[in-house]
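Q: What structure does this chain adopt?
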Amino acid sequence: TPRHKLMEENRKGPGVKFPPPLVYVPWMILGGILQKFYPMDMGIPFDHQYWGLGMVIFGMLFLITIRRKFKKAATNIKPWEPTNNIITTGIYGRSRNPIYLGFNIFPIGLGIFFNNFWVLLGFIPAAITLYHIAIKKEEAYLEEKFGDEYRAYKSNVRRWI
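A:
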């Protein structure tokens, strides 16, 4: 029945099975290992390295703010749970994936803080991996669930920035 189909659809999420923040961990560890064997600092003066720590703190505050936005919108933040509403205001009016953008701030900030180019560079393969294991699935799910509403949003707002 149509009602049963709607109830089933509301229980189904995008099918993301791996917590997206964990995608960054192996790349940052690899960056640390590469630094040990192939040192490549960025020449950042010690007193400027704290800008990286500031970026990490900013990233955490940014993610906390987005989490509150999800709670206020009464929708799930976990990408394996169903989405109840599309958030299109605030930062979501500028980026379809601000959470994932926030995740990218961590290796960049840590790379600057530790003056480790490899850790900083790790955000690139992590973001590509994230696209394939989460973003593609989420966008297909949102298009299927919200149809024209999501397609219109997608055509007006960039993925990253």
